Amino acid sequence: MSAEGATGAAGLAASALSQARALRAAGDLLGAHHVLTAALAEPALSAPATVDLAAAAGWLFLEQAHLHAGASEVADATRSMQAALDAFEHAGEGAGAAAAWLLVGDLAWAAGNSSEAASAWSQARSRADAVGAAPLAARALLALAVRETLGGEAVVADALTTARSEEHTSELQSRGLISYAV
Predict the structure, then answer these.
(1) Over the stretch 70-82, which tens digit does the pLDDT of each residue have?
(2) CA-CA distance, 95 to 134, in Å (whole number)?
(3) Residue 169 CA to chain centroid, in angstroms?
(4) How far is CA 94 from CA 36, 49, 148, 150, in A?
(5) pLDDT for position 47
(6) Which class for 136: exposed (0-12), middle (13-18), buried (19 or more C-beta within 10 A)?
(7) Angle of helix 165-174 versus helix 134-150 axis, rounded to 10
(8) Strand residue runs (E) in the chain
(9) Residue pair 108/117 in contact by the 8 Å Cβ criterion
(10) Which residues, 6+ apart, have CB-to-CB distance to 48 below 8 Å?
């Protein structure tokens, strides 16, 4: 792929992610899903040739996973989350992998799998600590603490552990810990 093609694909990904997040915030989940699906269908993002494009695809897949999780579409959320993890691993995107592991834990917790959730949140914390992503590490620690403290009071735990990825992303970007502009 040419440098211009990679730059264009990265711009498309950034635009699609921004647009999908705005649509999700406005409550247009179907519109957000369509934007993400169209972007991920682009050949440069569906089979990324560079680590930057793999990271870009990872953030798109993670946003898609959040959409599915919010709609209680656990199987679709899990598929999108796994695609995000695979893309982040390929790209060496530690903060992205940590964010994906947080979602793995949240999905396990919502399904009543406390030990699986704890394992995923521990993985998220480890990944976040490795790249200095303190907000993600703190979120993972909070989830683990809530699990230990509440031991199954899912409603309270969900309220305490729900954190929007946008809140973490801005701090991570400002500190240069995310290689892809989300």
Answers:
(1) 888 889 999 999 9
(2) 10
(3) 10
(4) 22, 19, 26, 29
(5) 81
(6) buried
(7) 140
(8) none
(9) yes
(10) 9, 54, 56, 57, 87, 90, 91
Determine the Cα–Cα distance for residues 21 and 9; give it in Å rounded to an integer: 18
Give the C-alpha separation, 31 to 15, whole Å: 14
Q: How far apart are CA 86 and CA 153, in angstroms?
A: 32
**What residues in the chain have per-residue pLDDT under 50?**
1, 155-157, 160-161, 163-166, 181-182
In the block, tokens 């709609």 appear at 71
Over residues 82-112, the pLDDT tens digits come to: 999 999 999 999 999 999 999 999 999 888 8
pLDDT of amino acid 45: 86
Terminal CA-CA length for the chain: 22
pLDDT of residue 151: 61
